[in-house]
TrEMBL record:
This is Carbon starvation protein CstA. It comes from Natrinema limicola JCM 13563. GO terms for cellular component: plasma membrane. The chain crosses the membrane at residues 59-80, 121-143, 150-169, 175-194, 206-226, 232-253, 262-282, 307-327, 348-373, 393-419, 463-481, 487-505, 517-537, 557-580. It is a multi-pass membrane protein. The keyword Transmembrane applies. GO terms for biological process: cellular response to starvation. The keyword Transmembrane helix applies. It holds the Pfam family CstA. Coiled coil: none annotated. Its main location: membrane. Residues 2-367, 383-528 form the CstA N-terminal domain. PANTHER family: INNER MEMBRANE PEPTIDE TRANSPORTER, PEPTIDE TRANSPORTER CSTA. Keywords: Cell membrane, Membrane, Transmembrane, Transmembrane helix.
């Protein structure tokens, strides 16, 4: 109900509020280059955007939070926060980028608060991207290890996407027949995956799994903490992301995301229908009732097995994507703004896609309710198989076998993650292009003698992201990595809302700032409190002063966590101060001229 009201009413108001014009020239047309700026059909771009923003977080976050604090507070945060905060955040990030030549939120805020503010936000975003790449690559590897059938299916669907891109853009094949043919191929890949599962090293897999290398892979970096097969998949995923991010968007990004969107729509929509059918008709393999291991409300401090943690502010950081996510502002003002055919498409693609991700988060909570969660402290490793297992049970309501349903839901999850991972690497390059300076519409290979070329080059910049991301993952501190990712991601959302508020204030002094300013203030408060708990209580007090860190590796990890957390907090507070000063000058004094929305 809240999602419907948000899209029908609030998004229409916001479209008029930012004065989107269907006839205006978008950056995709103005700077069309066949590489990054490519006007796209609305359903194709919707598929890319939705696939890119909906990674593993809207699944892991709700499942973990629901197990710790109960399903009621988790569901309320999704139902209320998504249409009033998350969808607004995505929409204004996309709309603002359209008014600034398809540039990022870092460039936008730099227009109003100066070069220092721009660089602070861009570096903040770049560091967040590294955490995103690390977390998403890890999650893909965990799913590949748990469901080797998905490996085969994923490889086939990437291959189909490459062929589909050539079919559409080189041979100008008819769109609808091509869609029918290639989407059927993607679903057929699920059947092939069931017949021919694939793993790199030996493990506990279904019968008939093809294992490429002998032994358990104990020699692979990170195998001690993650297991040989999981640790081995991580570099594969990162290399794939680096290569995919360097390709023109029409080669893989657009066709793959469009095709994967049908998986996602089927998975999310099919699970929703299956829940309704199974509940009223009782056609599922087991009753669709809330498992006894899941409480409606587990108290402010949550369940003891997960380690007592305060619901406020940690629930609101644990559930990031699904309610509000700073990563989305990078997608909206990065790849999506460079491909938008008409300004008015921003309503469906920006606001509507976020509602779709909220629905995914609600489905994830439903899989938790059905399958239960016996290991709340297991984090990512326990949450991901839970989603596939619970989804498989739910889909039996529609006559799908539990095994096929579980593999299909695991593929849905991986299709989210793979698209988000290489989109993140591409966005990291965009951040660096703006830091070192690259004219709009120009790309750089990174292979020239110019040092700046290496940092912004599409072939070389991914190295700056995947190498530190890989080091973070194989250190074995993935639980810590998730906490840092959550805090940085939510704080970036607050800064994106700050950017939108500054833009609106400078555009017209009669514009109301409540729609973006209030969510910004809430998110700044929540995230700084959450990161402060991570820095000062969990690490400084428990790990260092109380001796919780009982090894040199644990001590160094705590020090690194504290350093990263403090840097994020300081950068955020400095940017809030600059933004507040700018808004105050514009609204209270005539000495600062208001900027037109198209000025840059």
């Amino acid at each position: 109900m809240t999602f419907t009201a948000g899209y029908v009413g609030y998004s229409r108001y916001l479209t008029r509020f930012v004065e989107l014009d269907e006839e205006a020239e978008t950056p995709a047309h103005k700077y069309e280059d066949g590489q990054e700026y490519v006007p796209s059909k609305k359903p194709v771009l919707l598929g890319h955007h939705y696939s890119s923003i909906a990674g593993g977080a809207p699944i892991v976050g709700p499942i973990t939070a629901g197990a710790i604090w109960g399903w009621v507070p988790a569901l309320l945060w999704i139902a209320i926060g998504n249409p009033l905060m998350g969808a607004v955040h995505d929409f204004v990030s996309l709309s603002g980028s359209l008014r600034h030549e398809g540039k990022s939120i870092g460039y936008m805020i730099g227009e109003y608060v100066g070069e220092s503010g721009k660089n602070m936000l861009l570096w903040f975003a770049f560091l967040t991207i590294v955490l995103v790449v690390a977390v998403f690559a890890l999650v893909v590897a965990i799913v590949f290890n748990a469901y080797p059938q998905v490996v085969t299916a994923s490889l086939l669907y990437i291959g189909l996407a490459l062929v589909f891109g050539v079919y559409l853009y080189q041979f100008n094949g008819p769109f609808i027949p091509g869609t029918i043919l290639f989407v059927a191929g993607v679903f057929a890949a699920v059947w092939v995956g069931l017949q021919y599962p694939l793993a790199l090293f030996a493990g506990d897999y279904p019968a008939g799994t093809i294992v490429l290398f002998g032994g358990a892979g104990n020699w692979v970096f990170g195998a001690g903490a993650l297991g040989g097969n999981t640790a081995a998949w991580i570099p594969f995923v990162m290399v794939y992301a680096a290569i995919a991010s360097a390709l023109p968007v029409w080669v893989l990004l657009q066709p793959r995301d469009y095709l994967s969107s049908f998986l996602l729509y089927t998975g999310v929509g099919g699970a929703t229908v299956a829940i309704i059918v199974g509940t009223f008709l009782g056609t599922s393999s087991q009753s669709l009732v809330i498992d006894s291991s899941i409480g409606a409300f587990e108290g402010f401090w949550g369940v003891e097995e997960a380690g007592l943690a305060p619901l406020f502010p940690l629930l609101f950081i644990t559930i990031a994507c699904g309610t509000i996510s700073g990563f989305h502002s990078l997608v909206s003002s990065g790849t999506t703004a460079k491909q938008l055919d008409k300004e008015t498409d921003a309503r469906l693609i920006g606001y509507g896609s976020m509602l779709g991700e909220g629905l995914l988060a609600a489905v994830a909570l439903s899989t938790l309710a059905v399958a239960g969660f016996a290991d709340p402290e297991g984090g990512i490793g326990a949450a991901l198989p839970n989603f596939a297992e619970g989804g498989g049970i739910i889909l039996t309501s529609l006559g799908v076998s539990e095994t096929v349903g579980a593999v299909f839901m695991a593929l849905v999850l991986c299709s989210f993650l793979l698209t988000s991972t290489d989109t993140a690497v591409r966005l990291g390059r965009y951040m660096m292009e703006e830091i070192v300076g690259t004219p709009a519409g120009r790309t750089d290979t990174g292979l020239s003698a110019d040092p700046a070329s290496f940092f912004r080059g599409r072939y070389t910049n991914p190295i700056l992201q995947v190498v530190p991301a890989y080091v973070l993952v194989v250190s074995g501190q993935w639980v810590v990595l998730w906490q840092l990712f959550g805090g940085a991601n939510q704080l970036l959302a607050a800064l994106a809302l700050l950017t939108a508020t500054v833009w609106l204030a400078n555009w017209d002094d009669s514009k109301q700032l409540v729609s973006t300013g209030v969510p910004m203030a809430i998110m700044v408060t929540i995230t700084i409190l959450g990161l402060s708990i991570l820095v000062f209580y969990e690490n400084l007090y428990l790990n260092l002063l109380q001796g919780g860190a009982d090894s040199l590796e644990a001590i160094l990890s705590s020090v690194v966590q504290m350093a990263i957390g403090l840097v994020l907090i300081v950068l955020a507070l400095a940017l809030v101060r600059l933004g507040y000063r700018n808004i105050s000058n514009v609204r209270r004094g005539p000495e600062t001229p208001a900027a037109e929305p198209g000025d840059d």
